[in-house]
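Fig. S4 source data, part A: sequence.
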Amino acid sequence: MLFRVLTVLAAAFALTAQAGANEAVSRLAALFGQDADLTYPALSADGSRIAFITQNEGRSLLVVMSLEGDPGTRSVDITDQKIRGLFWMDDRFVMVTVSTFSANVQVGGPGRNVFEQWLSDTEYFALFSLDTQTMQTAQMLGREPSLLPQSSLASFSGVRGGRVLMPAFRLGGGGGRPMLESTLFGVDPASGTGRVLETQRLRSAEVPITRWFVDAQGNAVARLRFDNANDRSTLELRQGNSWRAHPHWENLSPAGGVSGVDADGSGFYTVPWANGFRTMVRYPADGGEPRSALSAPPGRDVTGVIIDPVTRTPVGATYIDGAPRQVFIDTDLAAIHDMVAARAPGLIVNVSSWNAARTRALVHIAAPGEAGTFLLVDRPSGEIAPIGEARPAIANAGLVSTRRLITYQTRDGATLEAIITDPPGAAPGDLRPLVVLPHGGPASQDHLGEDYIAGFISALGYRVAQPNFRGSTGYGRAFQRAGWGEWGGKMQDDVTDVLTHLVAEGAADPARVCIAGASYGGYAALAGAAFTPDLYRCAAAIAPVTDLWVFAGDIGARSSRRSVARDYWRRSIGDPNSQRAMLEARSPARFAAQVQAPVLLIHPVEDTVVPISQSELMERALSSAGKDVRLVRLDGEDHWLSLSETRIAMLEELVAILNAHLGAP
């Protein structure tokens, strides 16, 4: 039933999208920039129903549907909502994380580590419930009057007695001066109203409790104190009516976040550096020595812990070895993963949702570069059935590009990896115009999974190169820290060297190369145009940093005087006080006169990561120098381009500059 309904929806769209793609490039931009036909599919606790988000006639719908032949499909319109994820709390309530832009909220409570800060221009996260019996929604803690303004009310700690467990900060006390309290609420999913289950009053100078952890019955078994000023954390374990610090997690530096807890509260998991690489480590609650629980293959980092969304127990971990991979400690989910992998050799396999008994799961499979297909897997019977495709119109139009992993040598002898996306039908050795597309972060990593920007550019007929330059994550601590202080330095050389490699291989036409990117990638695009101007015919920068000294100073102004975030950025970029000359020398906005190529700047107005003033500064500098520059402002959009209409607008601007300056492939 589900596959038939989704196929009908997808096919109806595919006809118009394919025709449009053949008629105009703008329809191609819509094809890649719109929301996927199937996102966030999740199984109910008993495995009989599925919730997912789909598109129909220009509207976004959150759909709840039976997998057992029940025709009672229901939906709620979520158009224009920024959904960040969803899962079933049980067989009735679906929990949905939503974010929205919030401006001019000041937090002035006691405690300099957390609360002496501005939440101006903040992306605010909230947790909602959807009652699948009534299809009504409620914001969790949305009407709690005692809460302090805080950037997120979306943390889900577990379930107790049918209530959602959520941590939050509030002003409590009575009869005297109000006191700041770190509180664990039990929230009614039907109404969103909460009641206090655990609370701890904090003195103004006390390190606050930022997380609470519960066992499978919903009993609080631990809490985490986080010293933001000194990058230290302490895991406190319940001992009767009091709390004691874990002997191996007291004043731990660098601070470690708890990724998950065993169902019986006997162990806690985090992902620290161990011998230079990130691994998943278990800390026994009895004070025993921490032990490695999961590791990635040699030379790779664990990139994340796979958590059961309801129980918060860890079931596995993720890593990247060119493609994103999963490895499980839960034997049932491991069996499901391996069953699909055996029947789909060479494909990227991702177990994305499962029922409470872990007998059924939704599994996403995809070839490199494809949006892929979701499968329903029944472990006891071994049955595997297709649920629906994420972006069927792209496949139907024959626009899936080939993504492959290469290695290349840098000028100083390092061996790096890059993802190359070849146009549909192109051989790896064909001479093609090239778009260099460095990733954002810079603490991030490109891989062989779907990338809508790279897919769109390659569908136009251009080859795309995405280097994992020094400073990228996934290759160990030394590799990541090799990028610190190297914005515009060795990191930029690594970007240039992938171009040199492809030209030498005969795969890139050196006379037809553009550079583009978002966030840090936008900075790298502008740095390429300013510092190696002979290489590029055009540059496109989305939400870029353009003046390192100004940006580093702005981070300081928006952060508390001592904070982990501020210290990280000063290590990554440079200290605006002691390294001003270096930062200015590596700021594209200060070298606008050297730019030769036309420049496209695209910036979301509601960007809470890189303020739009960075692009405005670059536009003024280029205009004053008499250069060809265009700034496109995306109203109502955030740093991540979460809205389909603005993604489409961005791609339309991108194709215009590429076609104008690279010509036809």
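Fig. S4 source data, part B ends here. Residues 483 and 490 are 7 Å apart (CA to CA).
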